[in-house]
C-alpha cells in the first residue's frame, strides 16, 4: 500500500470513547446495511424482539447499560432490512421491511417513552421485501428504495407516492445518492455498478466492478460544493482469488452498454471475508473502510492522480464489529480537532470512535475544517421533480458561525394517515353542524314568510 509521507492527515489516530452503550440485544438477522445509524440526537440499531421487525432508538447522551424494557419502534409485521435518519431532521427515521412497506417515524426530542407503533406515513408499492432506503441529500421529501422485486423506486413523501420506478437487473447490494441528489449509484449481485438517472427512469451507464461473489458496496467521492468534482466513485468487492479490493471509477469513462470501462485504479486490501463498507469525508478527502467482522477501520487519503489511494493508518481493537457508521460531519467536536466521529457496533454494545488530527494549538484549524453539509434542504420535492439540480447547502464549521446546529431542518410537510382521519372526522362534524344550522335558518325563514 502507498503511504502518505507529506500530508496534514499523516498522523490521524482513532480514539475509543470511555462512554458507550451497553447490554444491547441486537437482531440476529443478517443485513446488507451498515447495521447502525446515528446523528446528533440518537443512535438506532435493529433489536431482537418477536412479532416483526423492531428498532431501538437511543438518545445519544444516554450512555451505560440500557434498560431491559427499552421502548422500541415496532410497527412492521416483517423483519427490518434497512433504516436511515433524515438528513434534514434528526427526529425523522425511515425503515424498510420484509413486509414490502416503508415507514416514516417521528422520534420525540426526549426519545421514546413507550413503544412507537404508529408511523407518520406508510409507503406501499413494492411487490417483494424492501432491501434499502435512503434519503436524497439535497432535495427534501425525496427517497430512494430498492426491493427484491427488481425495482428502484423514487418516492415523493409529500404526496406519499412513487414518482419513478426503474427496473434493475439483479438483487441490489448497496445504494448511494450523489451529492446533488441527481444520480443514484447501485451495486448488484451481477457484480456490476449501475448509475441510475431516476428522472429519466433509466440506467445511464454500468460496468462490471469485480469477479468475486461477495456483496459489493459503493461510495461517491469528490466535493459537494462543485458538480464538476463529483464524477468519481469507489466500490468495494472481491477478486476471484478471494482478495478484498477497492476500486475507483470515473462515470464519464463508463460505457453505456454495460461492458467494462471507466476504471481508474484497483487496490487489493486483504483476504478478509466480510463486506467492506466505504465512507468518504469530502472535507478531508479521506476514505474509511470498515469491514463486517473486522476489528479495525483503515483510512486512506484520496488524491486525483495515480496511485489515487494513500494508506494512512488503521484504528485497531480486539473486538470485532457487527457494523459501523459515521455521524454527520456537523456533529464532530472541532475543539479537540476531531475530523470524524464513528459508531462501532459490537455484539452487545455500541462504541463511539473519535478520529482526530493531533495539533498543539487549541485554536480553530481552518485547513482541516472546511465548510460541511449544513443539514438544510437545498430545494423542495417539486423543484427536484421538475428537473432542477442543486448542490447541498454548506455551513462553516467554526463555532458560532454554523447555519444549523445539532439537528437538521424542520420535518417534511407530510401528514400521517391517523392525522388525516382525525382531520376528516373533524371536517365531517363541522359540515354536519353547518348543515343543521342551515336547515334551522331555512325553517325560520319559512315561518316568517
Automatic annotation (TrEMBL):
<dbReference type="Pfam" id="PF08953">
    <property type="entry name" value="DUF1899"/>
</dbReference>
<dbReference type="Pfam" id="PF00400">
    <property type="entry name" value="WD40"/>
</dbReference>
<feature type="repeat" description="WD">
    <location>
        <begin position="123"/>
        <end position="165"/>
    </location>
</feature>
<dbReference type="InterPro" id="IPR019775">
    <property type="entry name" value="WD40_repeat_CS"/>
</dbReference>
<comment type="similarity">
    <text>Belongs to the WD repeat coronin family.</text>
</comment>
<dbReference type="Pfam" id="PF16300">
    <property type="entry name" value="WD40_4"/>
</dbReference>
<dbReference type="GO" id="GO:0051015">
    <property type="term" value="F:actin filament binding"/>
</dbReference>
<dbReference type="InterPro" id="IPR015505">
    <property type="entry name" value="Coronin"/>
</dbReference>
<dbReference type="InterPro" id="IPR015048">
    <property type="entry name" value="DUF1899"/>
</dbReference>
<protein>
    <recommendedName>
        <fullName>Coronin</fullName>
    </recommendedName>
</protein>
<dbReference type="GO" id="GO:0007015">
    <property type="term" value="P:actin filament organization"/>
</dbReference>
<keyword id="KW-0175">Coiled coil</keyword>
<feature type="domain" description="DUF1899">
    <location>
        <begin position="2"/>
        <end position="64"/>
    </location>
</feature>
<dbReference type="InterPro" id="IPR036322">
    <property type="entry name" value="WD40_repeat_dom_sf"/>
</dbReference>
<dbReference type="InterPro" id="IPR001680">
    <property type="entry name" value="WD40_rpt"/>
</dbReference>
<keyword id="KW-0853">WD repeat</keyword>
<dbReference type="InterPro" id="IPR015943">
    <property type="entry name" value="WD40/YVTN_repeat-like_dom_sf"/>
</dbReference>
<feature type="coiled-coil region">
    <location>
        <begin position="417"/>
        <end position="444"/>
    </location>
</feature>
<keyword id="KW-0677">Repeat</keyword>
<feature type="repeat" description="WD">
    <location>
        <begin position="73"/>
        <end position="107"/>
    </location>
</feature>
